[in-house]
Amino acid sequence: MRRLRVVLIKAIFALTIGAAMLIGQVPTAGRVDQAVSSNPLEGLKTKASQLQAAIEAGDVDRTSNLVDELQLAVYEIRKNSLREGPRQSLTKLEKALAEQPKLRPMFVHYAAFLAEMSGDFVSAKRYANETLGLASKGAKDEAKNTYYGNHVLGLVALHDGDTGAARYYLLASIDNAGWPGMDEFGPNLTLAQRLLERGEREAVIEYLERCKKIWSRGGEKLKQWLAILRAGSTPDLTRSSFSIP
After folding, report:
1. Residue 11 has pLDDT above 90, yes or no
2. How far is 135 from 156, CA to CA, in rounded Å?
3. pLDDT value for 244
């Protein structure tokens, strides 16, 4: 059962990220027929249907293989999408969210990341605050939205030269309990790395210590990074960090 749980977590994460990367291409009402043949998400939908059938059949090996195929397909889609650059991806995402408001709670955090990556810090801050607004106590995805909202606000604070605020947001990002995707893949360490480069060693050590509670699978990496930091050296945290939310 544990193996099945792990592959299911990977599948959910892969589908979520793949959908976020391509949300600008999701067809709206009236454009479904034209989009079916050209929309790369159709391939993911086929894989997802096969995956569901394998899960219902209790075929763990088939499930695991399909998850691997799904992740590879998402990787290729992400790679092609990223060639556009964050600004183009943000424009697509904003258009899709305007056309399909019901998608906003699922993807506004990704708009915050893309805005920060493209240098639009005003929009990044606005989207990050909107994300935090979705993180009320007991709300669906409370922990995830707390993490993403604070992470992006920390990056914006660093851009504004407010290291103290960035340090606060770094630690606030993991105030709540984690969620399955975090436990499996770990946090995005971009903010931690940038703070480390600015001499905030103690804050990063505290952050990595707290990460032990929400990233159980990263225990060995966290132990290595903490040992390097406490020895006075500086690890490259971003080499092991997933690059998008």
Report:
1. no
2. 19
3. 44
**Structure token digits, residue 117:** 């990556």
Q: How far is CA 47 from the centre of its chain?
A: 21
Give yes or no: residues 152 and 202 share one domain: yes
Rounded to 5°, the CA angle 59-62-64 comes to: 105
- Residues 177, 143 contacting (CB under 8 angstroms): yes
pTM confidence score: 0.71
Residues 214 and 129 in one domain: yes
- Rounded CA-CA distance 168/242 in Å is 22
Neighbours of 32 (CB within 10 A): 11
Tell me which residue of 99, 113, 88, 96 sits closest to 23, measured CA to CA.
96
pLDDT digits (tens, 9 = 90+) for 70-98: 766 765 665 565 556 888 888 888 988 88
Distance CA 96, CA 103 (A): 8
d(CA 53, CA 49): 6
Instruction: Give the closest residue to 153 by CA, choosing from 104, 191, 202, 206.
Output: 191
What's the CATH code of the domain at 136?
A: 1.25.40
Residue 23 amino acid letter: I
Does one domain contain both 27 and 106?
no
